[in-house]
Specification:
The complex is a heterodimer of chains A (251) and B (516). Chain A has 251 residues and is an alpha/beta fold. Helix content of chain A is 39%, strand content 23%. Chain A has helices at residues 43-51, 73-78, 95-105, 110-123, 140-152, 170-187, 198-204, 222-227, 232-240, 245-248, and strands at residues 2-9, 20-27, 32-37, 58-63, 66-67, 80-83, 158-162, 190-195, 207-212, 215-220. In chain A, the strands form 2 sheets. In chain A, strands 6-7-8-3-9-10 form a 6-stranded mixed beta sheet, sandwiched between helices. In chain A, helix 6 links the parallel strand 7 (158-162) and strand 8. The longest helix of chain A is centred in the C-terminal third of the chain and has 18 residues, at 170-187. The chains are: A alpha/beta (251), B alpha/beta (516). Chains A and B meet through helix 2, helix 3 and helix 5 of A and helix 19, helix 20 and helix 23 of B.
């Protein structure tokens, strides 16, 4: 479970509005929560706060009951798998070495790492021969699968995904979306997923938080946001990405 | 029986070491000189006399870069003897121009544990010279005859223009005025005089050209120029240790070399292209020495001198390689940790980068001469100076490589549990390896060039040839040192291209595909 209470973060540039302004949010265990918002809305900052990479100016964050802070950062990070848009794979390591890195950092024996990497390749449907390739030799979709495997290698209860499919072509993206939804359910992960893509929010979101300029505009299910928008901005945001009516006829 | 073979190899090795050690034992006289023809010649004369006396062997540390370096080497015990001039001892070493007599100079250097020999016989003073035709046409015999000849043009060497015993003093002393005074290197000035483009030039009274060319030296009739009588400057300990050798030096060199003789010897090297050793040997032979000319023919030509230099090339190449390799290895061992530290502690890092940067701004020759009081002369101080010079590109590129890493990759390292050393060794250094290697490569190529300066403090290497060539004003000799140095720089560059392939992780050498 992830809980944020009145979290404010200001990066201290004079005249800027805060990156996050009094944000509260609860992600119950075993559910997927989508942070929806445009660029600059503060979505990525929120994930970095949960990871302890930056510290809040006010408010409190807790992961599975442990308050995030310098003293608990290592414990928290151990419980979280993290995936970012471009994958953040290490270019000098093969796919298998990238996946195994968190386990290697914790001193797992090589055989145990190999076994775990093989198991994950099956779970995320990654062809084994590709494991020996370097990130530059993989397609964007393959790279994100590797990144996901790395996030899962220690079997953390929580996953933080920052636009994980943002850099992929539409077909690969749609394909991976379906797989991820199934995987999160089967693996019982608590997921906080950041996206600007309304369709993606619809596919993933048990519940959704719409952020705008660091503030929560509305929280609820997709149906709540669509049917009972808190402000006209919500409708505007959802509509902006809907297919034009003339196009919808073709589907 | 491999055991026996190993034992035999070890025994032979030990014997060799013992033999080398034995050869290195016994008294030794370390002879130095500055990097101009006359100094080389005198030092070679000293060395040959010492060798012929047979009391000690000789170590030649020739071509040291100037009075400051060679004197410091003598004072700190790295040299036993070198040729010097009384005027230089008084003005530059004792810094007391009022010391004009030999006894006065002797008593002052005695306080420093040094002795001065009897004068060798010639005086290498500044003088003004004109073409013989000009002298005849204008009736010029002495410096005071130049007064009133404002139509003349003069070319002086750079040093002469700002020394107080140079042009400023001379002009006042004799009341001289010329139409045009320009700066010109010594050797070029003689050519300009011969072609008639210049009327008056600075000369040294023992210049080889004075023995050959149609040049008239004007007498210093109102005694302006201080005495630059040639002497041997030696450590007291040399005289005490090897009295017979010192006596031989006094007997065979003091009073034997008058201005004309020295000018002739200089001319044989500078103008005829003969080797120092050969010229020195034939002089000692003809000057009533006990030995003949040491088997070296009097007709040794410039070509022979060059072939002799070519024979030294393998040894000089090895010396140069050792200078580069050792200084680069140490610079890497020190520079990488410094670069890492700078990247970790940014504020300390700025100070550190400034410090290393300042080192780089010290002129190489100055840095080399700072090393002498600390490490003497020879290879060690040269290595220390080269290390300091090699440091900047390594430290700066290590720092730059580490601070410019993709922040997402750095964050990710923290999130996946890589702490301190693991993060550095597994992720940060490999990712920065291209930049770091580029720094090391820059450093290596620069060091090949800078190492040519090592010869100024007796560090050996290709610079030995370059300095000798500069002293002789002989482009071929300079190129004999400069071309191999350039080739070595190219080879080092090539070597690092290969190292890049080995040291940069494969994944970094593959061009990334666009995300699909």
């Amino acid at each position: 479970m992830i809980v944020l209470r009145d979290v404010t973060k200001n990066f201290g540039h004079v005249g800027d509005s805060p990156a996050l302004d009094g944000v509260s949010l609860t992600v119950p265990a075993d559910t997927t929560h989508v942070l929806l918002g445009g660029s600059g809305s503060g979505k990525s900052t929120l994930l970095r706060l949960v990871l302890g990479l930056v510290e809040p100016d006010a408010g409190e964050i807790a992961v599975d009951g442990v308050t995030v802070g310098p003293a608990t950062r290592a414990v928290i990070q151990r419980r979280i798998g993290y995936v970012v848009q471009e994958g953040a794979l290490y270019p000098h390591l093969s796919a298998a070495r990238n996946v195994g890195l968190p386990a290697r950092a914790r001193g797992w024996p090589a055989a145990a790492i190999d076994a775990r990497v093989g198991e994950l390749a099956r779970i995320v449907d990654f062809r084994r021969p590709l494991l020996d390739r370097y990130p530059a030799e993989l397609s964007g979709g393959q790279r994100q699968r590797v990144s996901l495997m790395r996030a899962l290698v220690l079997d953390p209860p929580v996953l933080l995904l920052d636009e994980p499919l943002g850099a992929l072509d539409p077909i690969t993206r749609t394909e991976l979306q379906g797989e991820l939804v199934r995987m999160f359910r089967e693996l019982h992960k608590t997921v906080l997923l950041v996206t600007h893509d309304v369709r993606e929010a619809f596919v993933f979101g048990t519940s959704i938080t719409l952020l705008e300029a660091g503030r929560v505009v509305q929280q609820g299910t997709f149906a709540d946001l669509a049917r009972r928008p808190a402000t006209p901005l919500v409708t505007e945001f959802l509509k902006a990405q809907a297919p034009p009516p003339a196009m919808a006829e073709y589907f | 029986m491999p055991g026996a073979r190993v034992a035999a190899v070890l025994a032979v090795g030990l014997l060799l070491v013992a033999a080398v050690a034995a050869a290195a034992e016994g008294p030794v006289v370390r002879v130095g000189c500055k990097s101009f023809t006359e100094s080389y010649l005198l030092a070679e004369l000293i060395a040959q006399v010492v060798e012929q006396t047979g009391e000690a062997r000789v170590e030649r540390k020739f071509g040291l870069g100037g009075t400051g370096i060679v004197y410091t080497a003598l004072a700190s015990g790295e040299l036993d003897v070198y040729p010097e001039y009384t005027g230089t001892i008084a003005r530059l070493i004792l810094k007391d121009p009022a010391l004009t007599t030999l006894p006065a100079i002797r008593s002052r250097v005695a306080e420093r544990g040094l002795v001065v020999s009897q004068p060798l016989g010639f005086d290498n003073a500044y003088a003004l010279a004109v073409a013989r035709a000009t002298a005849t046409r204008l009736g010029l015999r002495a410096l005071s005859d130049l007064r009133g000849h404002r139509e003349l043009t003069a070319a002086f060497d750079p040093g002469f223009l700002d020394r107080d015993d140079g042009w400023p003093g001379l002009r006042q002393h004799y009341g001289l005025e010329f139409r045009d005074v320009r700066i010109m290197e010594h050797a070029l000035a003689y050519r300009a005089l011969a072609s008639g483009r210049i009327d008056v030039i600075t000369a040294f009274t023992t210049d080889g050209q004075l023995a050959r060319q149609d040049v008239a030296v004007l007498a210093d009739d109102r005694k302006f120029f201080p005495d630059y009588a040639a002497v041997l400057l030696a450590r007291r300990s040399l005289v005490d240790r090897l009295p017979r050798t010192w006596a031989a030096l006094e007997r065979r060199l003091a009073g034997r070399l008058d201005n004309a003789t020295m000018a002739r010897l200089n001319a044989e090297v500078d103008l005829d292209g003969r080797g120092f050793a050969a010229v020195a040997a034939s002089f000692l032979g003809s000057a009533g020495g006990l030995d003949s000319a040491d088997g070296r023919g009097p007709l040794e030509s410039g070509r022979e001198r060059r072939s002799m230099l070519a024979r030294e090339l393998p040894a000089l190449t090895l010396q140069h390689l050792v200078l580069v390799a050792v200084s680069l290895a140490v610079a890497m061992a020190v520079g990488l940790p410094l670069g890492i530290l700078a990247a970790r502690r940014r504020r300390l890092g700025q100070l550190e980068l400034m410090g290393v940067g300042v080192l780089q701004t010290i002129p190489a020759l100055a840095l080399l001469s700072f090393m002498i009081p600390l490490f003497g002369i020879g290879r060690v101080p040269a290595l220390v100076a080269l290390c300091l010079y090699a440091l900047l590109p390594i430290v700066r590129n290590t720092y730059a490589g580490l601070v410019s890493l993709d922040p997402q990759l750095v964050d990710m390292a923290a999130v996946i549990g890589l702490d301190g050393w693991k993060r550095l060794g597994w992720v940060e250094l490999p990712l920065a390896s291209v930049t770091i290697l580029a720094g090391i490569k820059t450093s290596a190529v620069l060091t090949v060039g800078t190492a040519t300066l090592a010869a100024f403090i007796g560090g050996g290497g290709y610079g030995t040839l370059i300095i000798t060539g500069l002293a002789l004003n002989d482009a071929t000799t300079i190129l004999t040192g400069a071309v191999p140095a350039a080739l070595m720089a190219l080879a080092v560059h090539g070597l690092f291209e290969v190292l890049d392939r080995l040291a940069v992780p494969r994944g970094l050498r593959i061009r990334a595909r666009p995300a699909r």
